[in-house]
Amino acid sequence: MNLLEGKVAVITGAATGIGRAIAIGFHKQGAKIAINYLQGQESEIESLKLEINDLLAIPGDISQQLTSENLIQQTVQKFGEVNIFVSNAGVCQFAEFLEVTPDLYEQTVNINLNGAFYATQSAAKQMKLQGKGGSIIGVSSISALVGGGLQTHYTPTKAGILSLMQSTAVALGKYGIRCNALLPGTIRTQLNDEDMADDNKRSYMEGRIPLGRLGKTSDLAGPAIFLASDLSEYVTGSQILVDGGLFVNLQ
Known about the structure:
The protein is α/β, with parallel strands linked by helices. The chain is about 40% helix and about 15% strand.
């Protein structure tokens, strides 16, 4: 039996990377899938439709509250309800702290944190209305727990997502809505392709990871399926590191 059979899942920022891998993983477990994506990613959406039958793909800027409201509304119109929500959309542009501009800082906060707040709130309102509980997953990062000299504008947003999931777990538990965070380590995505193209840096990172390799986007699908399914029905306010052991390796 598929773990998510009959469930409706919504994932933001799912045209590429981690969000795409989670969407495909959920679909393989029987869920109906709705995603948000940015204008200009139409080719990625067309290829995703070849893997996910009856995919609902809604474009929009997730930093805008109306984008989330529209995403949830259209999902309900097509599939009838929302059972699982994954706040995944995010950006990460490396920059020296003293050179971070107001525009870069505000864009990063608006997309990563404000967008996660609005989207989580919209999904939670729908889940409360349905009265059947639900699962909300925030894609945070190992960066929520450690510092990053070129990520001073980014790491606070990921810490914010972790905190958001902890607080919404408290706020929404009375409605049977579970809220948990995924904390990916170094995962090869379009966000860090340029950075990981440096052979020396990639080798250094791989050497620090006990499992000996960088993460793949598909590595996030299994933990996300666990948190979305009834296997984790008594798990809320939790965080799952998906980092190959990087965080605990202090050597």
